[in-house]
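Q: I have two molecules that I believe assemble together. Could you output structure tokens for the complex as a whole instead of separate predictions?
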Amino acid sequence: MKQDDDSAIIRPRETDRISHDHHHDGIDRRGFLKCMAWVGTGTFCVMKGGVLSSYSLGALPFRGHESKGELSFVQISDSHMGFDKPANTDVVGTFKAAVDKINALPVAPEFILHTGDISHLSKPAEFDTVDQLLKSASAKDVFFVPGEHDVLNDDGKQYLERYGKGTEGSGWYSFEKSGVHFVGLVNVMNLKAGGLGSLGQEQLDWLQKDVKHLSHSTPIVVFAHIPLWSVYPEWGWGTDDSAQALSYLKRFGSVSVLNGHIHQIMQKVEGNVTFHTAASTAFPQPKPGEGPSPGPMKVPADQLRRVLGITDVKQVQHSHALAVTDADLA
Amino acid sequence: MKRISALVGIVLLAAVGFAMPGSTFAAAPENKAATSTEVKIDNFSFSPAVITVAAGTTIRWTNRDDIPHTVVSDDHTTFKSKVLDTDEQFTYTFTKPGTYSYFCSVHPKMTGKVVVQ
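A: Yes, here they are, computed for all two components at once.
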């Protein structure tokens, strides 16, 4: 795996103020990474015009400023409804905790993104349960993309019937909210032996067309289940043709990529693209390469909710600022 | 086919077995002379990943993981299990010699091979 200062995978550790600017572009990538690393433990990072600031959760800069045209939304992921193994025998309970967390946010989110693995076995009752539990969330609009667990046995037919209205192909789509262009991509269909996640040519062509008319200053948020960056290909944590997709987004000043699948928080910044993976609401998975497989990881019961979570994202108009905050369910 | 016939000729129910060549739902032969073998799915891998068997052998895959998997031939048509939850099984009888590559369509990094002689 390629690792250097600009593209290192980082995990919550410690934070620094800006101290490095190797590219003389006003962006301290190392500082940003370290700051981003803190999001898992409650620090809040904002990048404005290439300058990084960080805030503790106790001093959220956005609190009480909902009327200033900012956009706030929440990402949840990997609810695996129906899972009942030792790693979490109560995925309903932890999903409810996630909804409670959403409802307790200081700024009510406008909508929710669910980045897939809604269900564990694609059973109708599993989808029904998630739909039912989401009804008590403060945000009523939920945008989905499928995980591989949502398209078992039927090539995604049921998923499309439930969540695919107005989407293209196997369920990809885009929409605008407060000047931000959101793109939901599907990378869990037609997977090839030995391969990773896959978008496929039809979807890539669609994406190229979809963003063509946008001005380069339009903030872009791309969400998909499997990471669109190479987290750990040995465990299938990447997407074969993601580089092609990202090439269509190079000209934009602000691109945020939100993924799930790996059941842990990770971030990477590469140029104008910020990659972020969310925690699961169901069970954690090991860090890349640690352990014999990427299967569910059992942690002591009193620690489970600390490794599950939701992701709160804010986009402030006219300031090129993106803030991603992860909150655990404890 | 002559070789296969010779192999199973001693099996009383050979005629039944050949009525559905390659049937996904072929019952495990009760006669011990018939060959069947096991492949475990554990820790996101097939074990053994490569297995060599005689034509006519039934292979049974058992999922020992907490995560569902599938057993699908690379061409998606020769054999294709439904999704296997924990402890669920899939069997397939290999009647023709050849090399059969397969994978888990949920986790395509998981690959395996059956060599039928």
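A: One point stands out. The two ends of chain B are 12 Å apart (CA to CA).
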